[in-house]
Design goal:
Elements: H1 21-30, E1 35-41, H2 47-57, E2 60-70, E3 84-90, H3 93-109, E4 111-112, E5 115-119, E6 130-133, H4 140-146, H5 150-164, E7 168-172, H6 180-194, E8 197-200, H7 212-223, H8 245-251, H9 258-268, H10 292-307, H11 318-335, H12 338-353, H13 369-373, E9 403-406, H14 408-422, E10 427-435, H15 438-449, H16 453-460, H17 471-477, H18 479-485, H19 489-501, E11 505-517, E12 528-531, E13 563-569, E14 579-585, H20 587-603, H21 617-624, H22 637-646, H23 651-660, H24 663-667, H25 676-684, H26 698-701, H27 711-720, H28 726-738, H29 741-757, H30 762-775, H31 782-801, H32 803-812, H33 818-830, E15 835-836, E16 848-852, E17 855-859, H34 871-882, H35 889-895, H36 903-911, H37 922-927, H38 929-944, E18 951-954, E19 957-960, H39 975-986, H40 999-1005, E20 1020-1034, E21 1040-1047, E22 1052-1057, H41 1059-1065, E23 1074-1084, E24 1087-1097, H42 1098-1105, E25 1108-1114, H43 1120-1133, E26 1135-1138, E27 1140-1148, E28 1151-1158, H44 1168-1178, E29 1183-1186
Parallel strand pairs: 1-2, 2-5, 6-7, 7-8, 9-14, 10-13, 15-17, 22-24, 25-27
Antiparallel strand pairs: 2-3, 3-6, 4-5, 10-11, 11-14, 12-13, 16-17, 18-19, 20-21, 20-23, 21-22, 23-24, 25-29, 27-28
Helix pairs in contact: 1-2, 4-5, 7-15, 10-11, 10-12, 12-14, 15-16, 15-19, 17-18, 20-32, 21-31, 23-31, 27-28, 29-30, 31-32, 32-33, 35-38, 43-44
Length: about 1200
């Protein structure tokens, strides 16, 4: 007999089923079924995906949900009842809308114990188009029958029957449960008494009986239990699999029509999800405009007057501008997207009104002149030759995709504005379904199987670290993983369970930026869900304005609270016809905002980045010299290396590198030694002849030296050579990306025919097409590259011209990341900018620019010190309130609220050197902390009572009422300990670097600095640095070897010491030791790795390697005879065996010459005393030791 399953779960039931929707439908089709219902718990996550997968398998999907009921509303006496469940199935469009509303209300109003709960009273209003099943033993009726509460079961049956009529069914199931016979008998009796039909279901949680163990493992994971736990004994057994119609017939004889009911219900459920045309919200129009199209035309025209005034020869012609505007507006109006552009333009204008920057553009939207003229983008598509058809294809109706980069704080403000403008019921974020990756699946399986974590970690670490890697792929690629996975019964079982968990939905979270906006209540169009996930950015009120003073960003207090999200993720939400806009938080924009504020404050200058010259040599020098710290998307060591090789001289070079420096191009082999990026570099510098393949392609490929870099170039080649329209060319671009042979072949025929018609030989046409197809593996969107390339240029411009302001802002964006802060302060030092230590009297909460006697410097902010937290702001507030500096430790504790500044914060301030200006004796300050805190508490208490303590403050002066407590003495803190505390608390050394006494040796003898990445394989380099950490390890033979890290003034590297070298030098390689390593170097993934061949203690380096001392002298500088006499006295006193050379700079007419004079007859000792004395005479920059 035919049968339809009406109660089945997929992995979207969140750790209650390991079944992927596609697997369920394919299995059902193999069993000869034509229909099946999916009833995941409390949601219909990604329903469009389910319909698509069902259609591919030839199955008619019935969509539904198993909803939990909040029972408390049934009781007048306040008693609570455990949640029960029932099944809702969608019959038609009305039923779908009602299910959306019910699921949305359950999530919003009844979220408890991690699940949405529905108030059954809502069924009275939202029942039409829905079939309701009782839920068997999980339903209120079934539970009441098992508990002997027949009256309660009868009352609930009548309640649902009166609402749903003949669309309400009592469920019968047989899973070998001890209560099945009893419950089915009493259910049938109740059905006959109340004139309600019965229906047989199977409550599917897995596909085959053998999969029950994996289901139980998933349940154990959800319950945070071991699989062996007695708490899991009550879980369903092995009968919850996808049974065939014949197996169901064996369980039920259909005496009461329970099998026939499944067919009747399935027949009544005709709802099929179809992709909907875009439903755009109405944009509020100002008076005088008939519709959105008219207003968009008005804004575009006004923008054209501003952007193209016709006063510059560099501008495109007015005719070209008008033609492009008319082309785009024609397409936009035909597709009905005018309101979309107005909405996005309004959001961006709101951000700017509130004082927060918006990015210059993102994605293909930068190719639209309408977007440019309405303020959506800041990239001129005519100047950069960007294509509108890459953004909107006239031959393919699809929603435009405009993503917006805001500052992190601006993003939240604009989201608040959106809710205020369109209504909370019409705006929601978008769900992101978290799934288990390969490594996490191994570890989770180990938890439930009680396998030691060390075993799981050993296996997980062998899985390659790359996005999208699966266990199946990893096992086929990594031989050691396969061997270890099969090594024991325990690891074999572990991998079986891990495979069952991998890729399954595990949790619900919120997409980082996607927001949907509609013209009416969202709950009527898509089901909504509530997430309690805490946001990462601070929430700010709508009426706040942009702060005049830069504020710490990453340490802002996050906001909690409910967030409404759609149950369809970013891949499926637009199929429901909803407008999705990505609100993205880009920290670089916050850095730019802060930099511009600092420039305004220090120089009284307002910088408009859109008007800065795009041919600025000083800016290009930043890229040419690889000084990329803080440069948007150009910071990686690999990008630095390519930019120094490329030596960019025009904005087009930067835009091209923004497109090329991606995995596709980096992995695209041109020959054995070069990839596509190398080819681009070689052609720019004439090391390879530029080949345009045909004269008609020269204008298209000239800017990229004949290399196809952009998707838009493929479109233009198709248009110019193949005779395609740009719309058809865009279809070709998409086809190349999907790499479907049959579609590609059709396009190839059309392209070659079109080229031949224009006089191109078919052989050449075929070669061009194949080259374009090959390019599809790495070609990138030029519009996006142009927007981000320009943003990178802007950060380079600010760094080149306002270096200290830019570096201060970028440091503030990285507070809390000690590695980054160190890197950035090192970069600032390379520009001659000093970093001043934290100071309780001079520091702000964040990094700040301070005018110092030797020029402006960057002062470390108090919040950059670990564990200081809110005390930083409290100290600044107290200092401003008192209008004077703190005199000592006691003065500080008396002035700052002790509830904010605890003992730990005070200790960290001292150890980081924040008190050094008023008392450099850190150990003594630490010894007096408790006394100071007690003193401060007394003072705070007195102030709260309005009494006078030791001191009162009147009009910013201290009126002495007593005296400060005496300080207890303590031995001075060793210099090395000071440095260690500074490094631990701030991330870098403040007083001095431990390597500082050996800086001359590092400059003279190190052949590799640790910020360098352009290394030659198997070449041995000399590295001088400080050993940061070491980790002993035994090799396979049981011999001792060592892993470690070392740093110098420029960077850090990892090193490996094999047993043979460790045996000889292991005693030297201790943390904090300064050494010279002789090592082979390898640059992998931006990390420098060293294989150590030899180790030399630093004290031996200078003695063994110094060949001579070079002294620089300016012959025209006054006082040189006196200096030479002092030098001679030093040399006579310290005779030794190191020769001394003089480099004398002599003015000769218009030019300057350097003469080398030798003084080998007067060798000297080359020790620190001699060098310090010579430096005192000539200056540190004029004394060099050389090997």
């Amino acid at each position: 007999m035919d049968f339809v399953h009406l109660h089945a779960h997929t992995h979207y039931s969140m750790q209650s089923s390991p079944v992927f929707p596609g697997q369920l439908f394919e299995a059902a089709a193999k069993l000869g079924m034509k229909s099946i219902a999916v009833t995941d718990y409390g949601a219909i996550f990604n329903m469009p995906e389910l319909f698509s997968a069902a259609e591919q398998a030839g199955i008619r999907l019935i969509i539904g949900s198993e909803v939990l009921l909040r029972e408390s509303s049934l009781h007048q006496d306040g008693r609570s009842t455990p949640a029960s469940s029932l099944i809702l199935l969608v019959q038609n469009e009305r039923g779908y809308r009602n299910l959306c509303i019910l699921l949305s209300r359950a999530s919003h109003d009844g979220f408890a114990d991690g699940m949405p709960h529905l108030d059954r009273l809502l069924f009275r209003e939202f029942h039409e188009g829905l079939v309701c099943l009782s839920g068997y033993s999980s339903g209120r009726i079934g539970r009441s029958l098992l508990a002997g509460a027949a009256d309660d079961a009868r009352a609930h049956t009548k309640f649902y029957r009166d609402i749903f009529g003949d669309r309400f069914y009592l469920e019968l199931q047989r899973h070998n449960s001890h209560f099945d016979d009893e419950l089915n008998r009493s259910t049938i009796a109740l059905a006959e008494e109340c004139s309600v039909a019965v229906v047989a279901t199977n409550n599917i949680h897995y596909l085959e009986r053998k999969d029950s163990g994996c289901y139980r493992a998933m349940a154990a994971l959800k319950a945070k239990q071991k699989l062996s736990s007695q708490n899991l004994a009550a879980l369903p057994g092995s009968e919850h699999f996808l049974k065939s119609p014949s197996q169901m017939s064996e369980l039920f004889d259909d005496t009461h029509g329970e099998l026939a009911s499944t067919l009747r219900i399935a027949e009544s459920c005709s709802y099929v999800f179809r992709e909907k045309e875009p439903i755009l919200p109405h944009f509020p129009l100002p008076e005088g405009f008939a519709d959105e199209a008219a207003y968009l035309r008005h804004l575009t025209g006004e923008g054209a007057k501003e952007k193209y005034p016709g006063v510059s020869e560099d501008e495109p012609s007015q005719e070209e501008v008008r033609e492009r505007i008319e082309l785009e507006l024609g397409v936009i109006e035909k597709m009905g997207f005018s309101s979309y552009f107005l909405i996005v333009s309004d959001l961006i204008a709101a951000s700017r009104r509130l004082g927060y920057s918006v990015g210059p553009g993102r994605g293909s939207a930068a190719g639209s002149i309408v977007a440019y003229l309405t303020g959506i983008t800041r990239i001129d598509p005519l100047r950069y030759k960007l294509l509108f058809e890459r953004f909107l294809n006239p031959e393919r109706l699809s929603m435009p995709d405009i993503d917006i980069d805001f500052t992190p704080v601006g993003k939240q403000k604009v989201l608040d504005y959106t809710v205020e403008r369109y209504g909370a019921e019409s705006v929601a974020k978008v769900v992101a379904i978290g799934t288990l990756g390969a490594k996490a699946a191994i570890r989770d399986a180990a938890r439930v199987l009680d396998v030691p974590l060390s075993v799981a970690d050993q296996l997980a670490k062998l899985v390659p670290q790359r996005p999208g890697i699966t266990l199946e792929t990893a096992l086929s690629e990594v031989r050691e993983l396969k061997e270890q996975a099969e090594a024991t019964p325990q690891t074999r079982e572990l991998m079986i369970y891990a495979s069952a968990l991998e890729g399954r939905a595990r949790n619900v979270s919120v997409h980082a930026g996607a927001v949907v906006i509609t013209g009416g209540p969202l709950e009527e169009q898509v089901p909504l869900y509530v997430s309690n996930r805490i946001e990462t950015e601070a929430r700010v009120s709508l009426d706040a304005v942009a702060p005049e003073e830069p504020q710490p960003r990453k340490n802002a207090d996050p906001s909690g609270g409910k967030q409404v999200i759609t149950q369809f993720d970013k891949n499926w939400i637009e199929t429901a016809g909803l407008l999705k806009i990505d609100y993205l938080g880009l920290e670089t924009l916050a850095v730019i905002d802060e930099t511009l504020q600092l420039i305004r404050r220090r120089h009284n200058v307002d910088i408009d980045l859109e008007k800065v010259p795009m041919t600025d040599r000083k800016t290009f020098r930043i890229f040419q010299e690889g000084k990329m710290a803080g440069i948007f998307q150009f910071e990686s060591s690999g990008m630095q290396s390519y930019m120094t090789r490329l030596q960019p001289t025009q904005i087009g070079d930067i835009i091209a590198m923004s497109a090329l420096y991606r995995p596709g191009a980096l992995n695209a082999r041109i020959d054995e030694k070069r990839n596509a990026v190398d080819l681009f570099v070689d052609r720019k510098h004439g090391r390879e002849v530029i080949d345009y393949m045909h004269p008609m392609l020269e204008t298209i490929l000239k800017e990229t030296y004949g290399v196809i870099v952009y998707q838009e170039q493929v479109m233009q080649i198709s248009q110019v050579m193949g005779g395609f329209s740009l719309a058809k060319a865009d279809n070709l671009r998409k086809a190349m990306g999907k790499k479907k042979p049959e579609i590609m072949e059709r396009f190839k025929v059309d392209f070659v025919e079109g080229a031949v018609a224009q006089g191109v030989h078919d052989t050449l046409a075929t070669r061009v097409f194949e080259l374009m197809a090959e390019f599809a593996g790495y070609g990138f969107n030029k519009s996006h590259s142009a927007a981000y390339g320009v943003l990178a240029y802007w950060t380079g411009y600010l760094k080149a011209h306002y270096t200290i302001e830019f570096m201060t802002a970028i440091l503030n964006s990285e507070i809390g990341d000690t590695e980054r802060m160190k890197h950035l302060t090192d970069e600032a030092r390379s520009f001659g900018i000093a970093t001043l230590p934290p100071s309780i009297n001079r520091s702000d909460a964040i990094f700040s620019v301070e005018e110092a006697p030797d020029g402006a410097a960057i002062r470390v902010g108090l919040s950059a010190i670990k564990q200081v937290g809110g005390a930083a702001k409290a100290i600044i507030a107290a200092r401003l309130r008192r209008k004077r500096e703190f005199l000592n430790l006691f003065d500080l504790t008396a002035s700052v609220d002790q509830r904010v500044m605890n003992r730990k914060a005070l200790e960290c301030l001292i150890l980081a050197g924040a008190f050094d200006e008023i008392d450099p004796h850190r150990a003594r300050l630490i010894a007096n902390i408790d006394k100071a805190i007690k003193f401060g508490q007394i003072e705070n208490r007195s102030a709260a009572l309005g009494q006078c303590g030791f001191f009162t403050v009147e009009e910013g002066t201290v009126q002495e009422e007593g005296h400060y407590p005496d300080m207890e003495n303590a031995p001075p803190m060793p210099e090395q300990e000071k440095l260690q505390h500074e490094k631990r608390l701030v991330g870098f050394y403040l007083s001095r670097h431990p390597l500082s006494p050996w800086r001359r040796d590092w400059q003279a003898f190190a052949s590799l600095h640790l910020n360098e990445r352009d290394v030659v394989a198997q070449r041995q380099y000399r590295i001088i640095g400080l050993v940061v950490s070491t980790k002993p390890y035994q090799d396979r033979k049981g011999k001792q070897m060592l892993f470690g890290s070392i740093e110098d003034f420029t960077g850090k590297a990892d090193f490996t010491v094999f047993a043979s070298v460790f045996e000889q030098y292991g005693h030297v390689l201790k943390p904090e030791a300064v050494v010279m390593l002789v090592a082979e170097a390898e640059s992998a993934g931006g990390t420098l790795k060293l294989l150590v061949r030899d180790v030399v203690p630093i004290v031996s380096v200078r003695k063994s390697m110094t060949k001579k001392i070079i002294l620089k002298v300016d012959a025209d500088e006054g006082g040189q005879l006196e200096r030479l006499a002092r030098l001679k006295a030093v040399f006579d006193e310290h005779r030794g065996d190191t020769p001394v050379d003089f480099e004398v700079k002599v003015q000769s007419g218009e030019s300057v010459e350097t003469l080398r004079l030798f003084a080998r007859s007067s060798p000297v000792e080359c020790d620190e005393e001699v060098l310090s004395k010579v430096e005192e005479i000539l200056g540190p920059d004029n004394v060099i030791i050389a090997g």
